[in-house]
Design a protein that fits this description.
The structure holds two protein chains of two kinds. Chain A is mainly alpha-helical. Helices cover 77% and strands 0% of the residues of chain A. Chain A has one domain. Chain A has nine helices and no strands. Classes of the chains: A mainly alpha, B mainly alpha. The interface between A and B is medium-sized, with 30 and 31 residues.
Chain lengths: 242, 264
Amino acid sequence: MADTTAGVAANSKSQVPPMTGAWWKLGTGFLMIFVIYGAFFIAKGAAGFGESGDKARAVFFHVPSAILASVCYFVGMYFSVIYLFSSKRSTLEIDAKAAISMELGALFCLLATITGSIFAGIQWGVFWNWDPRETSIVITLLLYSSYLILRGALNSNPTKRANLSAVYCLIALVPQQFLIWAVPRILETNHPTKVLQNSGNTSPDYRLILWCSILAFTLLFIWLFQLRLRAYRLVAKKEAAR
Amino acid sequence: MKASTGPNDASNWMAQARCLFLKDLRAELRTRVAINSVGLFAFSSLLLVALATRGLREVMTLRMLDLPIDIIRPADVTAAMFPAWSAASKMGLLWTLLCFAAFAGLAHSFVHEEEAGTVTALRLSMSPAGVYTGKLAFNLTLLFAVALLVTPFYMGLTGMQAGNWPVFLTLMLAGCIGLGSTATIVAALAAKARGSGALFGAIGLPIITVFLMLLLNAANTLYSDSTDAAAHTIKTVQDVGGLISFGILLISVSAFTFRFVWEE
């Protein structure tokens, strides 16, 4: 009897893992609360962002979103490569993981665009001035959207959808990498990357909150990824039962 | 007796590509559908731009004649189309026209095979590498031909200068390679997705936008006045090199992944 119960539990665990690791999810919540409080009440402003430096507080939310927007693409690319080139692990769940990464990438990219626009509005007086970095983040958003549009067009055939969207993910990697590495180097931009990279412009508490924010956003991404994957597995299980 | 070579024989793919290229070229010379549609699209778009920039030409013509701007005479408006744009902007407009024209014409390169029912025959007799290379070669030839036809006409109409001829020609060549490589792989994806032209545009235009950004930057360098010749040369090599590397990288990734599209 005990063996049967254990077997059922093991079976259900292999298909839909239970909510485990609540401690780190609670930790993510507390860390995010600390980041929001610290961004406005603990960290001092940064030099090069007006007299008070308060404008640099937008960075606490913009930079982690922008980093995650790029990281999500790499995670999506990793699963796409596995799907295409690994005969053993080429399953629809791997494709779903790639799609989830790309969906979350689109979300973080949208957040980076909005927070970047707010920063441009308070720093330069206009919410949008077609700076190369502003254009880059919008094009990245378009690349994510194109991937999702292509998937939407192939909903009726999951295998074909997995194959073609994985190929598109790798093809769009070329312009995406150009946007990250080439465009900021060959086009003149007002983006204050170098101002922030100079540690003399920021205080230790500013850097602490920024790093905590990057960690909190990364944990949030992992959490959202797990949630979406659980949802996918539940739908897949329901469809398999039919 | 020579052993027969299969469709996936690696040594055979160049011959297969040549065969497919000549087949497409012969079909194209017979019907001229692609070159006519791409060329006509480019010229029609140019006409639309000429109409849309009428206000700019009026102001320019009146300024040239030293007349007050509020006086508009029909005779002045019919003057040649020399809008008040910089040479780099004119180059940007030329490539915007060429991009849309290419997307209108090259979308059919794989759809045509699907519709004609020749996909299965091609798949049985040719390797994916042969098909990709053949289609890419044909699309690039078509783009070179359209660029050769449209560019001199556009330069005459808008007064766009070449600037430094070797750099200008390299930029045009790099532009054709980038545009052709993007259009080829996106056309293959869209044909497999059996999507409409809208899908082809939706998944291809974001990629092309990055390429256009790089091209406009190279055009700005080409037409910029610089007192430091050495720094200008370095910037030119950097910008044009970036543009060429975009096309080469896209071709490399496409060559790696095309078999997954083709064998789907």
